Amino acid sequence: MRGASLRLAKWHRHADAVGAAIATRDWLTTRGSLTARLVASSKAFRVRRLHQKTVLCSLEEARAIGLPRRERVWEREVLLCCDGQPVVFGHTVVPMSATASDWPLFSALGERSLGTTLFYDPLVTRGPLEYARLRPGHPLLARLRAALGEAAYAAAERALDGGLFHARRCVYRRRQGLLMVTEVFLPAVLDLAGATIKNAK
């Protein structure tokens, strides 16, 4: 049990708590649509869907979306790519109790960005952002490694300060349904011209 607990992330309400460099912190604290910022910061943006299926959520996810224990949820994972390079790993979980009227477009997103739905739907409310550094062994990093491939993951890890990936997460509500999005930032995001619309709304 102790080994499992060490793999859990500590989530903070303030970005300063995760010790990110200034450039990384700027991306972590993007206030508006991250998708819109990525689109504006690159010549070619693409959502690469990895899968969308039912899985058993992690303990830290269960707590965040109001579940009393680990339960099955709908899970969607994607890589957000700019100019052919993965820059953000996106992980979304939705409780099975959510209905089609809560999230009408979720099942049919395909390779469209979830952000285009969340930020332009007046019925969606956004909770506070939370930030973390993901340690080796965290479940999301295992998923990221599988998505990138061993060589690309190792290269990304070497490019990071201390080998720790920074992530943020946020819970959204629409009608009675909750949905949580976690975004893991890859070092390639720092190569983008993101400062052109810094923290755009």
Mean pLDDT: 88
Give the low-pLDDT segments: 1-6, 195-201
Number of helices: 7
What is the CATH H-level superfamily?
Chorismate lyase-like
The name CATH uses for the topology is Chorismate lyase
Return Rg in Å.
16 Å
Spell out the key features of this protein.
201 residues, Chorismate lyase, 30% strand, disordered N terminus, disordered C terminus
Walk me through this protein's architecture.
The protein is of the alpha+beta class and 201 residues long. The chain has one domain (2-191): Chorismate lyase (3-Layer(aba) Sandwich), CATH 3.40.1410.10. 24% of the residues lie in helices and 30% in strands. It is built from 7 helices and 7 strands. It has helices spanning 2-6, 22-28, 34-40, 59-64, 115-118, 139-148, 150-159; strands at residues 45-56, 72-82, 85-95, 124-126, 130-134, 165-174, 177-185. Strands 1, 2, 3, 4, 5, 6 and 7 form a 7-stranded antiparallel β-sheet that branches. A hairpin with a 2-residue loop joins strand 2 (72-82) and strand 3. Helix 6 (139-148) packs across helix 7. The longest helix is centred in the last third of the chain and has 10 residues, at 139-148. The N and C termini lie far apart (42 Å). Mean pLDDT is 88; it is low at 1-6 and 195-201.
